[in-house]
From TrEMBL:
Species name: Sphingobacterium paramultivorum
Taxonomic lineage: Bacteria, Pseudomonadati, Bacteroidota, Sphingobacteriia, Sphingobacteriales
UniProt keyword list: Signal
Signal sequence, start to end: 1-18
Keyword Signal found: yes
Keyword Signal belongs to the record: yes
Name recorded for this polypeptide: VCBS repeat-containing protein
């Protein structure tokens, strides 16, 4: 009996080790559930962001910021301007389209220590633009319901039996109360992972107009809503700088149901 007991114990231990090794091998062969889940999540995000409107080819048109430009290595951004450019401007609460009327003045940028050229419009201009088929005159426009569209907010516009919905997505990182130049207090958010989606009742599916990973002490604003190309549908102009040392504008042109996106930006960091 003394011999039998140790022998039984040894056989039992060997059997237990075999089961343990088999279980370990099954665990090693099994796929990592967390990794598979993460992979599916990433795929879903990519599928969603693939619906963003692409920027239009410059051959289809351009927009131009009416401002001062730094001249780097003799590259002159103002050289593109000529008699083909139009000006969208405001006068007494109305908006008009006319051939651009401006002067260009030479200067020097003290911050960057390089020459500069300033484009100064003779009107209250929003931007200059160059597209085929533009017609001068009064532009139909609608009142801007809400200039800043924060994450989880939606703004709707109605124009000639067309309804356009702008829906914002993103993360609010922090919130503070700021005072503007008129002494009025307003709530401001620091926003990341921002997307502005666009949909209209003319059959277009919801798509992303633009996305920004992080706004640095600035945020987007709606500057104009109206019919620039006179196709009976709304066009939009947005201010969309990523940081406080940048000016950036984005134009959504409805283009007879085939929307085009144009943008222009200029840094003035010091």
């Amino acid at each position: 009996m003394n011999v039998f007991f140790p022998l039984s114990l040894i056989l039992g231990l060997l059997s237990l080790q075999a089961c343990t090794n088999h279980t370990t091998k099954q665990q090693q062969d099994r796929p990592d559930t967390k990794n598979v889940s993460d992979s599916l999540t990433i795929s879903t995000v990519e599928d969603t962001t693939s619906s963003i409107y692409p920027k239009a080819d410059p051959s289809k048109g351009q927009i131009f910021l009416v401002r001062s430009y730094r001249i780097w290595e003799k590259e002159d951004p103002t050289a593109v301007l000529n008699k083909d450019w139009y000006d969208i401007y405001e006068e007494n609460g109305q908006y008009y389209l006319a051939k651009a009327d401006y002067v260009i003045k030479d200067g020097f940028d003290d911050c960057a220590q390089v020459p500069s050229k300033s484009v100064e419009s003779r009107r209250n201009s929003l931007l200059f633009l160059k597209f085929s088929g533009l017609k001068p005159g009064l532009i139909e426009h609608v009142k801007i319901n809400q200039s800043e569209i924060w994450p989880k907010e939606s703004v709707q516009y109605t124009f000639k039996n067309q309804k356009v919905n702008l829906k914002a997505l993103g993360d609010i990182k922090s919130t503070e109360v700021q005072t503007d130049e008129n002494g009025h207090e307003k709530v401001f958010h620091e926003v990341a992972n921002y997307r502005l989606n666009y949909s209209a009742t003319n059959g277009n599916k919801e798509k992303t107009l633009f996305q920004v990973d992080q706004y640095d002490h600035v945020f987007m604003k709606t500057l104009f809503v109206g019919d620039i190309d006179r196709d009976g549908a709304l066009d939009f102009i947005f201010s969309n700088p990523r940081n406080y040392e940048e000016e950036a504008l984005l134009l959504l042109l409805s283009n007879h149901g085939n929307p085009l996106i144009f943008d222009a930006e200029e840094q003035f960091d010091c």
